[in-house]
Amino acid sequence: MSLTSPGYVLFLAACVLLYWLLPERWQRGLLLLASVGFYFYAMPRQFPIMLAYLWLVYALGVGIARRKKRAAKPLLMAGIGVSVGWLFLFKYLDTVLGAFTGGRRALSLVAPMGISYVTFQCIAYLVMVYRKEMRAVANPGLMFLYALFFPKVTAGPIEPPERFFGNIVKKRRLTWRNMLSACVLIGVGFAKKCAAADLIAPAVNAVFQSPGQADGFSTLIAMILYAAQIYFDFSGYTDIALGSARLFDIRLTENFDHPYAAVSVVDFWRRWHISLTAWLRQYVYFPLGGNRVSTARRYLNVLATFLASGLWHGASLTFVVWGLFHGLCQVLEILWGKLFPKKKKPARGARMLGRVRTLALVAVGWVFFRADTLGGAFAVLGGLFNRWALPWEALGALGISWGAWAAFLLTALGADRVKAYAASKRLTGRGGVLCCAALTLLVLTALVLGAGSGAANTFIYFDF
Fold this sequence. Notes:
About 70% of the residues lie in helices and about 0% in strands.
């Protein structure tokens, strides 16, 4: 069930209405029932497998909590081993076997929905219980709710367990400001997806489905548009997820902080997919030694962490290269900082240059992320050296109407501003009216030019 579908909107509205009508002691039960029902409706065949995995994680968590660290370590290793193993089975085994079968899928296993997000959350839970940083959950229903909470199960964010359980057990309040800010988030997310990401998708597809065939200017525009598409698609989903959770007075982790305003690739990863970056730092980079080791070892740790980031997205070589590319960029930036240390805050011009350089590097990286094969990625990059058409010829060749361009620009310039205004605690009086008016304009634009264009696509990060 897509988060932009009418079915999801009706499902969410019914859950919210029942939630606030029920006594507090029944509210968590309703959320669990809704989340389990949501998952079963989406993937009935994979539901028993997911349920069995979560029962195992719950049992291991209880067992770890009852033992001292030395005795609990085998249980932790078993939990991590099972988690990595089932992730490998469903996400990577077919690709590995395909190397020996000419690319043919030998098993054709269908991965349970949200397997990467659920697995990383469960590993974090087991590690935190082992470190005595939190207590094991006594009620298995809470464990299932943590993993399957319907606004986030399909594509995150990867919620830290202590944060989620703290949200669940606190006393929740129904306030109009909370409800309005939640609706603003959902509306902004809907606009980002339908009036931005989906509208420019055909232009991106035109270049990437025929790699190397487009003229140089069209290729450059498509690279920039894909950077925009994946941001508006993923952040749009995240806004809908955060807004949906906030309707129940549950705060999920923000996943984005203006990533394309980053002045370096290191800065980009502080702003992009924040929950994944935090998980990799906590459970991959730090255990490898972080930056408390020799310089050469630190560089290897960075590369290993971003190799893990690439593999988390999939077993394809394109994701491996994408991850290593970002790791290498960070290593070079760290090395540059050591050779030429900054003595003062960079001037505005230097910061602008850093943003342009970072956007260029990130856009090149996205080519590998988007392409089906390494050969296709290099062909797209090679297309930059084809004949360059005139700007209006290139724009026409991409097949996007001027109305769609206008809708995209309106959403690109306005969506995050409306969201920031809603977060600034000025949703009362005239401020609330202005915010709602701007949001209404964005959503109407999405409805007229987005949903009405027939260009609807599933969210990109649903595949991971």
